[in-house]
Amino acid sequence: MTRTVGVLLRDKILLQEVADLAKCFDMANLLAEGEIYRLVSFSRSAGEVFSFATWLTCTAAHGIDDLPEDIGVVLIPPAERSARAAADTDFTEFFLSRTDLRRVCAWGNGVVLAAACGLAGERKIACEPADVPRIMLLGQNTAIEPFADSCHSGSLSTWVGSSRARDVVLALVEEDFGPAFAQELARRLGVMDRMEKLVAPAPSVRRKTPVDRVQDWVRENPQGDLSVTALAKMVSMTERTLSRTFKDRTGQTIGGYILGIRLGYACNLLSTTDRKIKEVARLSGLGSQANMRQVFMTKLGKSPSSYRTSLDGRVSGEDRL
């Protein structure tokens, strides 16, 4: 029996992830000596054009109105951070109408789209720290699993990270055909990787760009001095050049990125520890307790203590404690 899997396309979707999905499913078919998986692409309408880069575009094979009825799994790969946000209204209606889907898999910032379509609901999810505020703003009772690499809750599976195509396919294969088949598939994919490295010229190791270094530093030091002045000095750039380059590469301002990381870090501390609010504010880089409360009220619509209570049902103390 062939299982049809739909890949949801959107602007600036990560091409490597789509290619890896195709490679992994092709290997699964080869291992099974028959077509056990069929991959189809879709978006709001058939023929909708999407850009992978400034020089490459693709079109969706199907729209949500003509999607094959036998699709049982939908995959939502990540897109570049600078991509325009996908309108979720049509997709929300689609997922509400397709209650027959046995699984939806999302990873990277694809998790944000899944949540915006109402797929997360009161389920548990794994997501990037920078995406926590965007998901919390949706006003759902979604439980974000702090520090989790992946999470499988009901029919929704989510992964942290943008390069998880192989993990997604192996999880589906194990669910459909058992661990032994999945382990053999993983072994063959590993052999293929080693063979490709032997016959292909060794790629030059990609050096981290100044933007990469800034992002790494922010993630590792949310409580540190993250002023544009300090960050620009660290990567030997002018403040103006760094700000412009960061916005071009990520679609976010440096300040917006830093606030997202700090807010996500604070949310993780509130949900996984019993630290006092003022200590969480200090460790997350949000400064004073009053400033942290203002950020939470502005971004999430609730105070830090209310956020903590909404996650685990504990009796809320005053934010001033």
UniProtKB/TrEMBL annotation:
Keywords: DNA-binding, Transcription, Transcription regulation. It holds the Pfam family HTH_18. Residues 212-310 form the HTH araC/xylS-type domain. InterPro entries: AraC_XylS_family_regulators, Class_I_gatase-like, Homeodomain-like_sf, HTH_AraC. Signal peptide: none annotated. It comes from the Bacteria. SUPFAM superfamilies: Class I glutamine amidotransferase-like, Homeodomain-like. The keyword Transcription applies. One of its GO terms (molecular function) is DNA-binding transcription factor activity. This is Transcriptional regulator GlxA family with amidase domain. It comes from Neorhizobium alkalisoli.
